[in-house]
Amino acid sequence: MTQNYGITTAMAKQPVTGRMYLSETGLEGDECAEPKFHGGTERALHQYPLEHYAFWQQKYPEREWVSSGMGENISTLGMTEDNVRIGDRYRWGEAIIEISQPRSPCFKLNCRWDLQGFSETMQTTGRCGWLYRVIQPGFIRAAAPLVLIQAGDERFTVKRVLDWYFNDPMNPDKLRLLQTCEALSKSWQSTIAKRLETGELENWHFRLNGKA
Hints:
Blueprint: E1 2-4, E2 7-9, E3 19-23, E4 26-27, E5 45-49, H1 52-59, E6 74-76, E7 89-92, E8 95-102, H2 108-113, H3 118-125, E9 130-136, E10 138-141, E11 146-150, H4 158-167, H5 172-179, H6 186-198, H7 205-209
Parallel strand pairs: 5-6
Antiparallel strand pairs: 1-2, 3-4, 3-10, 5-9, 7-8, 7-11, 8-9
């Protein structure tokens, strides 16, 4: 964890090729700057599609978009929010991991890329990546494939959950349907329940902009 881009962050990741241990809270040696908002058993790993960097490069050509620019632990080709589902389980080396929720972009991405409003654009476009819980800890290698061993409910692709949660956030029918997604993280389920109970949307301003 370092002071980079004017903030305290663990976003600056480096490629690792050796054998590493994946515990219930993440990779050995990995760090988290703000455990209240990141990390923990339901957000142990972050995966980001490599395909998205081409989109960002086209949209913001003045930047040099490279992995792992979003602070991801796993970068892949062929897996996107459109074709993976909440609850998908993968074997990765000795470990088993399960998609728990989409990533909620925060203002530190604005700082990382020196782009005001970038986190909100990421959220709106749904190019957020996703997070995992660790079902079975074990040793992994970056080169070890992610092997799908159990598919989540096809109704709940990461993209669809993102769209419902962020882009149509107070639709009661969609919120109630999301409540039936048993693999969705407890924190997202709690927020969904609160929206239905109060009829109010939580304030995203600080998360997205870093200002009260």
